[in-house]
Backbone:
């Protein structure tokens, strides 16, 4: 994969794309994400090239999803867990060419997944190259996302596939990801920073609407999409973090499999991700209680006021309090489990 | 292949293969019709605990393999795998309750239920 000049970096790009922030949710941005195509530029994300004849087999042995059937031109999202069954990272595996994979995660800390995979690379013929500084990631989200990409880049894109396109002589990787939630169309675009503004213009001209971080977060929270180092991370196992759909139960061993299988088999999962509604915004990290009993912790909190006036948050809620309409206390603010 | 508790200490600059394990390797090599052979002992990523033992009968060592000779068997260990295996005893357990090749690895802090993988 060519290494473009990294001089034009993410922050500059972000300023160009970000819409003005207000305390009220921007209905046009939310509409784009829910009913059209929102364009979200990641300020930082993990983008890693994993190359070599053993790369795919190694990831198959290490992570929760069966990957051996991910052929050239296909993609699949998987989770890397520790031997204690905690989430190290969640990433898309895109098979871009023979013995060439692209790993894309939401985490701004690329070192985490690189060092974890590198630790387990012992006799394997596989090499990791961190492209996070030289490449940028845009996500196109919404029911029109695929149509927007196909129109802007003049290419066809099937679900869970990756295509490489030459955009103004620069390679652009377009990856379809159907794992974000039922009915959520999500497409990641990975490219060298140099073509940033013209690429975004092409998507906007095809009907996409730029979305800022606050409205993207509100959409994520509203749809209970787990976030990196929020709902999942070293503090949570993949089942409680809302990543159950990324576990293949019949694939055989992977790192942490024994612990995760035991949690499931003996019904030992103690909490789950839930959407909370409140009349005032909550703070991340706030402990939840019910009659002074610990009930969970707020993991993501939107500060934007939605049209209906209810602030939305995500929380890891203990098993006893998962029922819809359960009322919890968040440091003096009443929060209702949705 | 399973992991067992180390029962005796082995110098940390080598790994040890018991006479019984060496005999089994020789038999397997003979069954495959190999006259010149060695036992490749390595570790790869994977398994519940993260690191899995691998055993293979091969014709000779790779360039970066450490070569250890015991009981007239050449044992080849890739240098990157040796850090996880130093001080290990490789034994063979047969009979009705036998588990085949067994590793007693002093570096293993935790092993999975079936004993094929470990973490350090």
Residues:
């Amino acid at each position: 994969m060519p290494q473009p000049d990294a001089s034009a970096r993410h922050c500059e790009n972000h300023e160009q794309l970000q819409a003005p922030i207000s305390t009220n949710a921007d209905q046009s941005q939310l509409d784009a994400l829910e009913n059209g195509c929102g364009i979200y530029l990641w300020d930082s994300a993990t983008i890693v090239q994993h190359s070599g004849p053993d790369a795919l087999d190694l990831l198959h042995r290490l992570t929760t999803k069966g990957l051996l059937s991910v052929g050239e031109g296909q993609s699949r999202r998987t989770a890397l867990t520790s031997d204690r069954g905690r989430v190290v990272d969640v990433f898309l595996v895109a098979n871009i060419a023979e013995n060439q994979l692209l790993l894309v995660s939401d985490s701004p800390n690329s070192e985490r997944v690189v060092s974890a995979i590198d630790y387990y690379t012992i006799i394997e013929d596989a090499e990791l190259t961190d492209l996070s500084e030289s490449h940028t990631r845009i996500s196109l989200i919404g029911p029109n996302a695929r149509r927007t990409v196909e129109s802007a880049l003049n290419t066809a894109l099937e679900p869970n596939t990756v295509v490489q396109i030459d955009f103004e002589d620069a390679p652009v990787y377009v990856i379809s990801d159907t794992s974000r939630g039922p009915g959520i169309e999500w497409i990641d675009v990975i490219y060298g920073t140099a073509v940033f503004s013209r690429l975004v213009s092409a998507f906007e001209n095809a009907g996409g609407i730029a979305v800022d971080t606050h409205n993207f977060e509100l959409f994520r929270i509203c749809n209970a999409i787990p976030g990196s180092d929020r709902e999942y991370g070293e503090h949570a196992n993949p089942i409680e973090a809302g990543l159950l759909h990324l576990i293949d139960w019949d694939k055989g061993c992977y790192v942490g499999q024994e612990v995760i299988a035991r949690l499931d088999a003996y019904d030992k999962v103690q909490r789950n991700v839930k959407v909370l509604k409140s009349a005032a915004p909550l703070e991340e990290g706030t402990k939840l209680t019910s009659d002074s009993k610990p009930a969970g912790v707020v993991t993501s909190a939107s500060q934007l006021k939605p049209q209906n006036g209810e602030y939305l948050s995500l929380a890891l809620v203990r098993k006893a309090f998962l029922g819809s309409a359960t009322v919890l206390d968040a440091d003096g603010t009443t929060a209702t489990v949705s | 292949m399973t992991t067992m508790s180390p029962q005796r200490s082995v110098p940390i600059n080598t790994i040890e293969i018991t006479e019984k394990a060496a005999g089994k390797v020789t038999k397997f090599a003979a069954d495959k019709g190999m006259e010149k052979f060695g036992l490749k002992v390595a570790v790869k990523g994977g398994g519940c605990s993260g690191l899995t033992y691998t055993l293979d009968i091969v014709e000779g060592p790779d360039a970066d393999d450490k070569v250890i000779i015991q009981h007239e068997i050449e044992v080849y260990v890739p240098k990157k795998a040796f850090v996880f295996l130093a001080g290990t005893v490789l034994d063979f357990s047969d009979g009705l309750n036998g588990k085949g090749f067994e590793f007693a690895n002093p570096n293993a802090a935790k092993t999975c239920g079936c004993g094929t993988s470990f973490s350090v």
